[in-house]
UniProtKB/TrEMBL annotation:
Belongs to the nucleobase:cation symporter-2 (NCS2) (TC 2.A.40) family. Azg-like subfamily. It is found in: Cell membrane. It is a multi-pass membrane protein. It comes from the Bacteria. The keyword Cell membrane applies. This is NCS2 family permease. InterPro entries: Azg-like, Azg-like_bact_archaea, NCS2. Keywords: Cell membrane, Membrane, Transmembrane, Transmembrane helix, Transport. The lineage of its organism: Bacteria, Bacillati, Bacillota, Erysipelotrichia, Erysipelotrichales. The keyword Hydrolase does not apply.
Length: 442
């Protein structure tokens, strides 16, 4: 493993990587419960989606670890699953089989542009200052997700968001877990984020035994052998329905392409910045392999019967405890495969209150990238600020990146530096504008 994953070269070891992989898995485990619930609203069978989600996440994460040597795990993405269920199947009226066909085709396109180097060229064309803003923005984004999942902040009709019910036991558990995790990080405790999650879960289980409602619990049966992939192969039967309306098919496939591309780009850039995978030229090392692994995961997931499989920003939780190589991703992948059998245990003990502190603390760590932005230069200050704030307020990594690119390009024009804008950036700005305009064109 030392030779294959280059552990010493990356400043890591087997123990650290295994803990990092387990931490990443625990931070992502919520997808095993959430994704089936979301896709069930599109008419899909929950049990089938659970299996497809776990298996595709496991295989894709292992491919990422072995092929790209990145500490990045993959699974069916949040946001894109909502696009699948509520927009494409709900508003547009397509069946879930047709939607799976669109996911499959978008994955095949991703494989083609990954092999040809187009995806790498686009990511490398992102200015270094914007890369830092993307990484920091994702930090704020996942911290916001953690705060929301924990109930520390909630929706408000007058102010959009407000403070949650601090007397709720689950909210209090998350707050206690957050304070414990911050203290562990400050004390430089090894694997502090993971240890914080374990302590939070144990506290919750104890409180649950004492009769406190909503706490993590131990299930009656730890193992399940319910295996049935009802939607496997349905992506092929839905192709004719998808292309019955060619323009609609284009919009659907483009939407999947856009969200997955820039969610993945943002995640890889953020983690690349964190562990030193961005070289002196601002280019992401081993980008082709990482992007290819991501694309293969999407195709494989579609064939099994789940929405777009993408690189998960929660992988930063594993990086936060020291994960630096593909062994972290492989460990997470094995955990996802084992989850097929251990679903009762995982779904009952790894609650939002347990994962939220990890997401918030890792968000704090990632936000430190803001110090690398030249805030005295209004071009980068404006583009960076817009990237971060829109990523949070629009609740979308890809939308935040799009807004940042548009502002950056306009700012460069205003500064008389239009000739310094990379041709790829010009092309992307046009694509971003079209993306935002598409719902109104339809």
């Amino acid at each position: 493993m030392e030779k294959f994953f280059k552990l010493n070269e990356k400043g890591s070891n087997v123990k650290t990587e295994l803990i990092a992989g387990l931490t990443t898995f625990l931070a992502m485990a919520y997808i095993l419960g959430v994704n089936p619930a979301v896709l069930a609203d599109a008419g899909m069978d929950k049990a089938s989606v659970f299996l497809a989600t776990a298996i595709s996440a496991g295989v894709a994460s292992i491919i990422m670890g072995l092929v790209a040597n990145y500490p990045v795990a993959l699974a069916s993405g949040m946001g894109v699953n909502a696009l699948f269920a509520y927009t494409i199947c709900g508003q547009m009226g397509l069946s879930w089989a047709a939607a799976l066909s669109a996911v499959f085709i978008s994955g095949v396109i991703f494989i083609l542009i990954s092999v040809t180097g187009v995806r790498k060229a686009i990511i490398n064309a992102i200015p270094v200052q914007l890369k830092l803003a993307i990484g920091a923005g994702i930090g704020f984004f996942i911290a916001f997700v953690g705060l929301k999942n924990a109930g520390i902040i909630v929706a408000s009709p007058s102010t959009f968001v407000t403070i949650g019910n601090l007397t709720d036991p689950t909210v209090l558990l998350a707050i206690v877990g957050l304070l414990i995790t911050i203290a562990l990080v400050i004390k430089n405790v090894p694997a502090a984020v993971f240890v914080g999650m374990v302590i939070t879960a144990v506290i919750g289980i104890i409180l649950g035994f004492m009769g406190m409602a909503g706490m993590p619990t131990l299930p009656e049966h730890f193992i399940s052998f319910d295996f049935e992939l009802q939607a496997a192969g349905a992506c092929f039967s839905g192709i004719s329905e998808l292309f019955a309306n060619p323009f609609q098919a284009f919009v659907v496939i483009f939407s999947f392409l856009f969200v997955d591309f820039f969610d993945t780009a943002g995640t890889l850039v953020a983690i690349g910045n964190r562990i030193g995978l961005i070289n002196d030229k601002g280019e992401l090392e081993n980008a082709e392999q990482a992007l290819l692994a991501d694309a293969v995961g999407t195709v494989f997931g579609a064939v099994l019967g789940t929405s777009t499989v993408t690189s998960f920003v929660e992988s930063s939780s594993g990086v936060g405890v020291g994960g630096r190589t593909g062994l972290t991703a492989c460990t997470s992948g094995i955990c996802f495969l084992l989850a097929v059998f251990l679903s009762p245990l995982i779904l009952s003990t790894v609650t939002n209150a347990v994962t939220a502190p990890a997401l918030i603390v890792v968000g704090i760590m990632m936000a430190q990238q803001l110090k690398g932005i030249d805030w005295d230069d209004m071009i980068f200050a404006a583009a960076g600020f817009v990237t971060v704030i829109m990523m949070i307020l629009m609740y979308s990594i890809s939308n935040g990146i799009a807004c940042g690119f548009i502002v950056y390009t306009i700012a460069m024009i205003a500064a008389g530096k239009a000739k310094e804008v990379h041709p790829t950036v010009w092309a992307l700005m046009i694509i971003f504008v079209l993306y935002f305009a598409t719902p109104y064109i339809m």
